[in-house]
Every structure is written in structure tokens, then in C-alpha cells.
Amino acid sequence: MYAIVEIKGFQYRAEKNAVLRVPYLKTAEPGQTLTFDKVLLLREEEEIKVGQPVVEGASIVAEVIENGKGEKKIIYHHKRRKGYRVKKGYRESYTDLRVTDILA
User: Which family does it belong to (predicted)?
Assistant: First the structure.
């Protein structure tokens, strides 16, 4: 059994006990349980339910594992023969979730 769920504008395939790395959720504290009800597709055995736009009554229950920052990404701009160089970097914040249950 799996589901396609939308979290903060991104779509993830959620299976039981799967760990999902999603963009940072401000209200999520480690150990907290969250419910996501924007389930776009739900598959149970051979039956597939496709939502228009969401599957009614379906939701995903997930536990927050941790909040953190990813690896540093470097952005480098330059213009040839002009002496223009800019080097910037950033680290994206994320939240790790463990799917505990898929409710149909």
C-alpha cells in the first residue's frame, strides 16, 4: 500500500515506515505527530483511487524525526573579461518525517 501526498507544494510517495525529507515545517517539533490530508493517489493491493484533486477521507499520519540543514550549495556568477565575480552559498532547511500510517 502506498499513497502520493502533497506537502508544501511537492509530491511524495509515502509508504508505511518510509522516511520523507520535506521542506522545513515551522510548526514541527521532533517527536510530534502530523496528519496530511492532501492525498492525490492511493493504492491498496490492486485497487487504485485517483483523486480529483484529492482522495476523499484519505490521510497520511507521520512522525517528525528531526529538523536540520542540508549540504551547502554554491552559486557562482561571472562575466567574462569584465572582472565581475560573485560567489554565494546557502543551506536548505528540511524536516525528516517517518510515515506511521496511511488512512484510507
Answer: Belongs to the bacterial ribosomal protein bL21 family.
Rounded CA-CA distance 39/37 in Å is 6
pLDDT tens-digit map of 58-85: 999 999 999 999 999 999 999 999 999 9
Of 91, 59, 61, 55, the residue nearest 74 (C-alpha): 91
The CA radius of gyration of the chain, in Å to the nearest whole number, is 19
Q: What is the pTM of this model?
A: 0.83
The residues, any chain, with a CB within 8 Å of residue 72's CB and separated by 6 or more, are 89, 90, 91
CB 72 within 8 A of CB 56: no
Residue 98 in grid coordinates: 517517518
